[in-house]
Amino acid sequence: MLEVTARGHRVRVAIDDGDPGRSPLLLMNGIGARLELLQPFVDRLDPGRPVIRFDVPGVGGSPAPRRPYRLWMLARTVAALLDEVPVAGPVDVLGISWGGGLAQQFAFTQSRHVRRVVLVATSPGALSVPGSPWVLRHMVSRRRYTDPDYLTRIAGTIYGGTARIDPDIGETMGSHRSPDGNRGYLMQLLGAAGWTSMPFLPRIKAPTLVLTGDDDPIIPRVNGRMMSSLIPDSRLHIYRGGHLALVTEADALAPVIEDFLDS
User: Fold this and answer.
1) pTM to 2 decimals?
2) Which of 97, 123, 178, 234 is catalytic?
3) Own/partner pairs for 131-140, CB < 8 Å, 24+ apart?
4) Coil, helix or strand for 11?
5) pLDDT for the residue numbered 239
6) pLDDT tens figures, 199-213
7) How far is CA 164 from the centre of its chain?
């Protein structure tokens, strides 16, 4: 665990060392979540695979930025972050949910840093097919991170998959909240407001794996089909599960992702 300064932002970074010469896997998390949330997935990866995680400015151990940003600006910050850590060569990028939007932007505008891309439970942004308004209104607030009882009541409805039957989901999500992340959460919402990747998806050159769940109330699976059809060198994998399957079904998804990265 270390702290680096990238384009004026102090960013908390976690690096899992792996075998020298292997491309690191750079993880981009969902909105409001600390880097620790994806620990179950990291635990199921090959120990020889280097992994880099970070807290977006305003989340977890990264102080909130002084002014709002856009995803293209944050992509430049992430590129600067990679220049500050011991990374040789391009990285593989995995983004989930909001982080999937950042991963798409990064793969396009910072392509020199990217070898392969994995997009999980995400969409092309403003021009996507949205989930139901009832579900999306719960995403505007970060209450699900601060009130475990509230999250337990709504988790199955908004996340789908095993969250419908997992009584511990409130504790799992709540333990990875930011202590004072209201401003950071708002910055993330503003950063992606009106953003869409539809115009540049056909220009993403890196091989891409798109994973979408068959029970994801936030991101209907048609969005995965759209992205896969627009990215030239891509493949689509529809998994059984919901929005948080990368955490709750890590045993099933980690081998699929590793097979893609190593193929």
Assistant:
1) 0.93
2) 97
3) 131/216, 131/217, 131/218, 131/219, 131/220, 132/217, 135/217, 135/218, 136/218, 139/31, 139/218, 140/189
4) strand
5) 97
6) 999 999 999 999 999
7) 21
Pairing mode, if any, of strands 91-96 and 25-28?
parallel
- Count other C-beta atoms under 10 Å from residue 126's C-beta: 13
CA distance 167 to 151: 10
Go through the domains of the chain in sequence order and give each one's CATH number. 2-262 (3.40.50.1820)
From residue 149, give the alpha-carbon distance in Å to each of 127, 144, 145, 207.
Answer: 33, 9, 10, 41
pLDDT at 79 over 60: yes
Q: Which two tokens stand for residue 46?
A: 């090959």
Please enumerate in sequence order all residues whose Cβ is within 8 A of that of 166, keeping only pairs 6 or more positions apart, or say none.
155, 172, 248
Closest of 263, 203, 214 to residue 243, by C-alpha? 214
197 belongs to the catalytic site: no
CB atoms within 10 A of CB 214: 13
Q: Where are the alpha helices (DSSP H) in the chain?
A: 39-43, 71-84, 98-109, 133-140, 143-146, 148-159, 169-174, 182-192, 222-230, 245-248, 250-262
CB–CB of 91/179 below 8 Å?
A: no
Cβ atoms of 239 and 245 within 8 Å: the answer is yes
